[in-house]
Amino acid sequence: MIIHSLTINYKQMKDLFKSLFIILLVSVFFVSCEKEEDDDDNEPDVVEFVHPTSMTPLWETTNLGGPESAIYDKERDQIFVSVQNPGNTEVGGYISKINVETGAVVDTFWVQGLSNAITGMGIYENTLYIAEDTVLTEINITSGDIITKHDVETAVFLNDVFVTSTNVVYVSDTFGNAIYKLENGTVELVVQATGLESPNGLWIEDNNLLVASFGVITDMQTFTADPTYVYSIDLDTKAITKFGDLTTPIGNMDGISEYGEGNYFISDWTLGKIIYLKSTGEMNTLLTLNQGTADIHYIDSKKVLLIPMAFDGKLAAYTVE
């Protein structure tokens, strides 16, 4: 009797464990399914990239004596504007500080006594680089003091500046059809070619230096030039190609600033246009202003494009939509 009773209990126990095991498997299955659903719910929504279609005026800063270039200082949340102040050799060119939210002038003559030919700017940490004629000047942003000036002896007219994340400074020589760089205190020629057609605005994407060219100048008195293209320079091989296989000239370009990866805002000095250039080479005009639309700068974090208007003596800010 005892043996029979034990046999029955063993069988019951075996059936019980089998049932529990099945229940456990089912539970694990449903928990796993719920987790996958939760994971799907927690996945971030994919934001589709939207190309800009319009621009709305935000603010204007007036009474600037020939603003040429504007740049946003992200670390200090302020704007610098290079002002050529043509005809006033006593004061010379100067750099103004502007409030990024309102356009109010914080300091008109933050740095003064510069060349009347000051043009593009670039920032690395606490240093502001600015091109002035044939010199590349370093300014301490905290103090506003000039740190040093680098003579580019073979340059004709330095124009735009682009600074990499490793503090390599590229500068275009518009009249010399050349690009120079400053690295570790030494200036050297990167490339020189008539095919650059008066290089002006600069931007680096991966290992390619993009050049928004002004065009072959046919009359230096009126600064008339044939419209031209954005060129791409391979920094390894120095090969020069047209950006996006363009077949139609863009214009007499001054500034270039990236919008999203591989897309760019371009300014046309002569026709006063703000052009949007896609990575594919497609382009369209978003805004038409006056002649003298100069070296633009896009602030991605604020969705604002800064537009110096040299002949109008003002800096305009537009919200990009």
Condensed summary:
With 321 residues, this protein is mainly beta. The chain has one helix and 26 strands.
List the helices and strands and how they pair.
Elements: H1 2-42, E1 55-61, E2 67-73, E3 78-83, E4 93-99, E5 105-114, E6 118-124, E7 127-132, E8 135-140, E9 146-151, E10 158-163, E11 169-173, E12 178-183, E13 186-192, E14 199-205, E15 208-213, E16 217-219, E17 224-225, E18 230-234, E19 240-242, E20 253-258, E21 264-268, E22 273-277, E23 283-288, E24 297-299, E25 304-309, E26 314-320
Antiparallel strand pairs: 1-26, 2-3, 3-4, 4-5, 6-7, 7-8, 8-9, 10-11, 11-12, 12-13, 14-15, 15-18, 16-17, 18-19, 20-21, 21-22, 22-23, 24-25, 25-26
Q: By helix and strand content, what is the structural category?
A: mainly beta
Q: Might you state the CATH topology name?
A: Neuraminidase
Query: Any low-confidence stretches, pLDDT <50, length ≥5?
Result: 1-8, 28-33, 35-40
CATH superfamily: TolB, C-terminal domain
The tally of domains stands at 1
Number of helices: 1
Measure the end-to-end span: 89 Å
Rg (CA only): 30 Å
